Task: inverse folding
DNA sequence: TATGTAAGGTTGTATTGACAACTTTACTGA
DNA sequence: TCAGTAAAGTTGTCAATACAACCTTACATA
């Protein structure tokens, strides 16, 4: 079985399409290996770097995962989780009936207004204020799903560093301990390649993108009391949202 | 100037980091070329394939664009557009004061219930119904930004194929002609690699991801009367959303 | 001065080859 | 039967080389 070297379509794209079809049709089974790079090179009469270019595409699409020394595996399709409605992340996960575990990557730390002013990615409403910052990793069914890097206005959330912030919805903590409820949010969505620490926490492959959501939460008159950068693996879980008109 | 070949960090990642720093610090200017692959290979004493591996990363991150025969260019950062609140896409763009142009890629076509039932990606609420389908490309400031592939319930939107659907908010058409207003939406967000036609319309590089949003719109009692797959280039524009609590 | 052509420069695709770092498998000895 | 070790197989990184397909630049001619 060979590829068409007279075709204007590059060989690596032809091979990628063959492999993609094989995955979709079940020829290659989820959680099992596809043939090794050397075997594919022989089968299709092309070089191993060209095979790697083809599998690079499918790794990036979230269909395959390479494991050094072991092989190249077919990944399962993503599950669906409502994450971007205003219910709060851990609450949404509990509703979705997936086993979820949240752990702190960084415990809450108090940042002075000077320190905050050096962090240019924070919204203007938070500049020049003291903030608590913390990072959490949430795994679903034992698999890393999302990382949250949160900033909370220190004045509003005094004492939060003494609370248990693992395996518990932040919105519940905010509600139970501070008697606040989010009333609105501004979010933006983009594709990014997270910094190394976040990529490692999410178990991302080299140059694998993540969905990045910047979320600024408003609590009635307390505008922008919480800011959160969320990094999601959309290849493992599909993140959804329900919204309604507010009029 | 050389890379550290004794480092455990691969050479291509070291070079990528050097180039990224150069872009962020302004050493390499937006809309101008970085040094050619051969020049970088000489400068850093590495092979051209290794240089290409490094620039591959930055192309994927949306920092660089390669143009065959011309060079490798630094791309400008994305602009911010509110797209995922419930205001409707073209209306949101008008509000953002970017020059926007919307053109049909496919005019509305009526799909029979049989044809609809073969399209597995549509939500269950739409199966077994006659639908109009159409595709639109929206460009902002002359640059392809998003593609919408829409499905509208035929009973509800009879006659829509006779309306002008270019350069006009669908939500306005729906409002003016059918006296309907979206009251809620279910959306999900993921990173995808669109099919060729969509990728071409968006001017995506090979294996460049797009943000994919599936949106099901509800019009009061008319649940799920419009379904839309939206593919966005988040490297050119940053897409945002404002949501509020509905209680 | 403008147009056309050729040469040079640039990125895109592909091959062959080598070695490192890892996992898996098979065999041997206690 | 179990543990340890070596060999084989797998992916990851790197390089040289070649040719194709494109763009840019410079020069010549009308």
Result:
């Amino acid at each position: 079985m060979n590829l068409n070297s007279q075709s204007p379509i590059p060989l690596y794209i032809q091979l990628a399409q063959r492999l993609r079809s094989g995955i979709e049709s079940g020829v290659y089974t989820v959680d099992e290996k596809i043939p090794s790079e050397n075997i594919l090179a022989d089968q299709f009469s092309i070089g191993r770097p060209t095979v790697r270019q083809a599998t690079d595409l499918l790794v990036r699409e979230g269909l395959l995962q390479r494991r050094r020394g072991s092989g190249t595996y077919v990944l399962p399709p993503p599950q669906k989780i409502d994450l971007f409605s205003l219910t709060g992340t851990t609450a949404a996960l509990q509703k979705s009936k997936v086993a979820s575990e949240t752990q702190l990557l960084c415990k809450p730390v108090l940042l002075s207004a000077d320190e905050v002013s050096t962090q240019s990615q924070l919204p203007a409403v938070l500049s020049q204020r003291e903030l608590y910052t913390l990072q959490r990793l949430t795994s679903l069914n034992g698999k890393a799903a999302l990382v949250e890097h949160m900033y909370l206005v220190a004045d509003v959330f005094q004492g939060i560093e003494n609370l248990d912030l693992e395996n518990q919805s932040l919105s519940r903590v905010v509600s139970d301990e501070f008697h606040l409820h989010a009333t609105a949010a501004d979010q933006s969505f983009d594709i990014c390649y997270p910094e190394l620490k976040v990529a490692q926490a999410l178990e991302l492959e080299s140059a694998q993108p993540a969905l990045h959501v910047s979320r600024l939460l408003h609590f009635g008159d307390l505008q922008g009391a919480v800011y959160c950068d969320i990094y999601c693996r959309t290849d493992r879980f599909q993140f959804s949202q329900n919204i309604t008109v507010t009029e």
The longest strand of chain B covers residues 100-111. Residues 33, 36-38, 52, 66-72, 206 of chain B lie near DNA strand C (CB under 10 Å from a C1'). The interface with chain A takes residues 13, 56-57, 60-62, 78, 80, 84-86, 181-193, 206-207, 209-211, 213, 232, 234-235, 238-246 of chain B (CB under 8 Å).
